[in-house]
Design goal:
alpha/beta; 13 helices
């Protein structure tokens, strides 16, 4: 090959490279004024918190999120797939606006579209977040007032019995007596407690009179233990008052240690629930045959139970507003109440055919363990006191949805009867507070909360267990009777 031929080829390559470079520079001049990284950035779980960057701060282009201009000869790089959004509620799965936005992004990735970016305005992540926020107004307790049946948090006054409905006055009176720190610890562990807390703190008035018989709940547990022994099996379940007292002492000391460890290590909410809150609730309700504890962190509010508001139709206001634990009434399979609940749910039209309220659950959720067991006590847990406001909002939304669900089962004969009062528990680390959700007809008042004990010390644990057992007795009594009147007439 002669020198003239080589020179011609080098000149052609140089011209081609210059043309390609000019093409890329021209494309960048078109794209840069209209490029918004928020519009193409992958959506994370915290995308709703995205804010527009301050003026004056430079924004680097993410090359992987742009397609090169047609004909540039530059190979296209694959877009990184967006994170799959977390489904915080049933409503989130059906959000039409988010679905439209998401399908557009997915189509671009799947087709490898290389069309030039338009300068027309687009729906950015910030705008999408604003859209989501506008359909979910319940951010603080003041927003609960916008429900068609408003939820109001009310401080407890000096004479609390005047604020509380008749169905929980006896329960509150029992709680008050326990709060005076008299007769709430079994006499059988008196020397053990004295040794643990020391002479300075020890008080003789804490202890009950020595038990001569088992309580009804203890008798239920002892009967199951005797059946095991009679069948040739061994069991460590107690059968005497002293045995029950010593077993409880061991359990509470284990829970106390777990609570202190969770606090000192800044454990997560889930860790607290697993190690402390659920075991304590289970221990306190053992022996109450119709009362059960159900972890409910995934119990999402069903669409037909979402509380409507004066701002919109209420379809998305309860997004993500779930509780952690539910204490439920579980009627025996052969009881009239269980049969009546199944019959009422079976008579409802299938979902999608009847009204929104037509879904087969006695509660405001389709979470399977709660479908046939009415929720009696709703429990919300937090690890920090700074999260109390969020916990109050979650309980408020949950109660409003439960009231709407109960309205669906009303008959003309029961239309004017108040909905049963619901005890609510808000737990923050060691501290437990009890509130009462009271039906006022056109509103719901959440009255309280009352300090009922904590998990940082043995004596306070005994006080807490005593109150929880009083609540469990109330569930099997006044609460169960109200449910029977609702479903059996």
């Amino acid at each position: 090959m002669d020198e003239s031929t080589i020179s011609v080829q080098l000149m052609r390559r140089s011209e081609s490279s210059s043309a390609s470079s000019r093409s890329i520079e021209s494309w960048l001049e078109i794209v840069e004024p209209s490029f918004d990284p928020a519009a193409v950035a992958p959506q994370s779980e915290d995308a709703h918190l995205a804010q527009t960057p301050p003026r004056g701060r430079s924004i680097k282009r993410k090359r992987s999120s742009m397609s090169p201009p047609p004909g540039s000869g530059v190979p296209r790089r694959a877009l990184s797939p967006a994170k799959r959004p977390r489904l915080d509620s049933v409503a989130a799965a059906d959000d039409d606006d988010e679905e439209a936005l998401g399908s557009s992004s997915r189509l671009s990735v799947l087709t490898g579209s290389s069309r030039r970016l338009s300068t027309a305005p687009s729906l950015t992540a910030s705008a999408a977040a604003s859209t989501r926020r506008s359909t979910s107004p319940t951010k603080n307790v003041q927003d609960l007032l916008y429900f068609q049946k408003p939820v109001r948090y009310v401080e407890m006054r000096d004479n609390a019995l005047e604020q509380l409905p008749e169905d929980v006055r006896e329960l509150y009176t029992e709680m008050y007596k326990i709060g005076q720190l008299e007769s709430f610890i079994p006499a059988e562990v008196r020397p053990d407690v004295r040794a643990i807390v020391g002479e300075t703190y020890f008080r003789g008035r804490w202890f009950k009179e020595p038990a001569t018989t088992l309580s009804p709940e203890q008798a239920f547990v002892a009967a199951s233990a005797r059946k095991l022994v009679a069948s040739g099996q061994r069991t460590a379940k107690p059968t005497t008052p002293e045995g029950f007292a010593l077993c409880e002492l061991d359990t509470l000391r284990d829970i106390e240690e777990a609570a202190r460890h969770s606090s000192s290590t800044s454990a997560s909410e889930a860790a607290w629930n697993t190690r402390v809150h659920v075991p304590l609730l289970v221990h306190a309700t053992t022996g109450f045959r119709a009362v059960h504890v159900e972890p409910a962190t995934t119990a999402q509010i069903a669409r037909g139970a979402m509380p409507p508001t004066t701002r919109n139709d209420g379809r998305d206001v309860s997004q993500g507003k779930m509780i952690d634990i539910a204490v439920v009434l579980r009627p025996g399979a052969d009881t009239p109440l269980a049969a009546a609940i199944h019959a009422a749910l079976g008579a409802m039209p299938p979902a999608g055919i009847g009204p929104d309220s037509s879904f087969e659950s006695v509660n405001q959720t389709m979470y399977t363990p709660l479908r046939f067991c009415p929720t009696a006590v709703s429990v919300e847990t937090k690890t920090l006191s700074a999260d109390v406001e969020a916990g109050r909002v979650q309980l408020g939304v949950w109660v409003a949805a439960w009231h709407r669900r109960m309205e669906a089962f009303r008959t003309p004969a029961s239309a004017g009867v108040s909905i049963v009062t619901l005890p609510l528990l808000l737990i923050t680390g060691h501290d437990w507070k009890l509130m009462f959700a009271c039906d006022r007809g056109d509103a719901i008042d959440i009255v309280g909360g009352v300090d009922i004990g904590n998990t940082s010390g043995l004596v306070d644990l005994y006080r807490l267990v005593a109150v929880l057992r009083a609540v469990a007795r109330w569930v099997q009594g006044p609460y169960a009777r109200w449910m029977e009147e609702l479903f059996l007439g």
